[in-house]
Amino acid sequence: MASLLERASTNSRVQLAATAIASGAVVAGAILGYQRLQREERIHKLKSSIPSLANDNEALRKLDSFGGASKADKEDLRNEILARRAQAGDYDDELILEQLARNRVFLTPEGLDKLRGAFVIVVGCGGVGSHCTAALARSGVSRIRLIDFDQVTLSSLNRHAVATLADVGIPKVQCLQRRLLAISPWVHFDLRQEKFWDQAADRLLAPWKETGRKPDFIVDAIDNIDTKVALLKYCHDHELPVISAMGAGCKSDPTRIIVGDIGTSTEDGLSRSTRRRLKLLGVTKGIPTVYSTEKTAEGKAELLPLPEDEFQKGQVGDLGVLPDFRVRILPVLGTMPAVFGYTVANHIILAITGYPHDYLPAKGREKMYEGLLASVQGGEEKALRYQTGGDASISVGLKTPITTGDIAFLAEEIYKGRSAITGLTTRLILTRWRKPTHSIMVRIGEGSNEQKSSNLKLTDLVLMTKEEGARHDKLILRGDQQPENVYDLTVVAKVEAALKEIALYEKYR
């Protein structure tokens, strides 16, 4: 070994190689050192250019109206001054790129440019919405509109992304802006401290005022069912990209959180109610949704009754998953809204930048829905012919007030894709449960302007197999039997319970 080292030390080629390596290391170190000094100098200039706050009352006055920071919190004031300058373009872009360097490498420079130019609206700035917003701001999204009417409370602190004790009592939208400006001062925030509602949708979801850019994505982080449905329906009808976060309450397993189509979401009250209402409005697919597949089990958290004294504090109905239902306290493990929020943000980042991504496909049940709709139409025509003594001409042009969304709601949400009679899943049809006691036809107009329609309601229909339907038609719809005489009392009770559940939702059609 020693002789090998001696020969290497006397070999001129080895000496030259060692010299080259050493020289390269020195040069690389010098370059890196110079670059580091440049960065430090830029940062030093940036920080030293922020004016002193010691006696600047005018700065304090303006900052109070801008972000609401207290005079005692000078760090917040400095952050807001820096944000004003950064948003005005007085900020070294190289520092921004350095802060976003890991994203830039992952998404490519082109992808990061798309993200930096994006405009995202976050509706709901609680646990899920705050973590989503924080992730978007940290990742480079430069225009964010925040919509929320609520304020930070002590109970918010177990799940909010950035709120501190000092933020309790201030609006959630203001809290997010206040804290995130200290991280990404170049981000432009548009704060809307109000509750989203359908009549204000055109204004709240409008393009960014200065550029006219439409939102690249809208985040639904709402926990109120009526507002949630209104937002998703508006986005669906106006072809605005939206992603919806479902319930994080009572969930504890982060490995069960997935991104899937609205038609596949399951296992929580908010998801189920949203999906059902949307299907009745004709929205059966096409909305990416973050939800949990975790099932409830013994020993796991459940909804808790709201104490009576809470009802004396004001209107609490908005907290309910379903309208007109008694409000309950929703147990929330603080980590779960964060996982939901970051999953939403992750999907948005990938979608905007064009990075390859997939989520679970919809159930692909469209053909089944079409077949069920045809069975309803055929059943109504047959019933009308039976009522009129077999006159086939009377059923020509008969329309039924049932849509594909109604069919999807009944088949998937109420009957779970199974016959209500035997639980079988093949050759399914929808048919009337009871024999109509009056004419099913509604006539409007005369002659060529006449419109003929059936008076069918969703609460008239039950799902069964084709064979069961033929027997049901013979004994009940064209016979003189009642369901109670034909079926087991357990089956009758199950169907009647399903019809009552349908009635609860039918008013939203």
From TrEMBL:
Domain of life: Eukaryota
Keywords: ATP-binding, Ligase, Membrane, Mitochondrion, Mitochondrion outer membrane, Nucleotide-binding, Transmembrane, Transmembrane helix
Coiled coil (residue ranges): none
One MF annotation (Gene Ontology) recorded for this entry: ubiquitin-like modifier activating enzyme activity
Localization: Mitochondrion outer membrane
Pfam family, one: ThiF
A GO cellular component annotation in the UniProt record: mitochondrial outer membrane
InterPro entries according to UniProt: ThiF/MoeB/HesA, ThiF_NAD_FAD-bd, Ubiquitin-activating_enz
Residue stretches spanning the membrane: 14-34
GO biological process: cyclic threonylcarbamoyladenosine biosynthetic process
SUPFAM superfamilies per UniProt: Activating enzymes of the ubiquitin-like proteins
Membrane topology: Multi-pass membrane protein
Occurrences of domain THIF-type NAD/FAD binding fold (ranges): 102-358
Function: Catalyzes the ATP-dependent dehydration of threonylcarbamoyladenosine at position 37 (t(6)A37) to form cyclic t(6)A37 (ct(6)A37) in tRNAs that read codons beginning with adenine.
PANTHER family assigned to the protein according to its UniProt record, in alphabetical order: TRNA THREONYLCARBAMOYLADENOSINE DEHYDRATASE, TRNA THREONYLCARBAMOYLADENOSINE DEHYDRATASE 1-RELATED
Stated family: Belongs to the HesA/MoeB/ThiF family.
Listed name of the protein: THIF-type NAD/FAD binding fold domain-containing protein
Species annotation: Xylaria multiplex
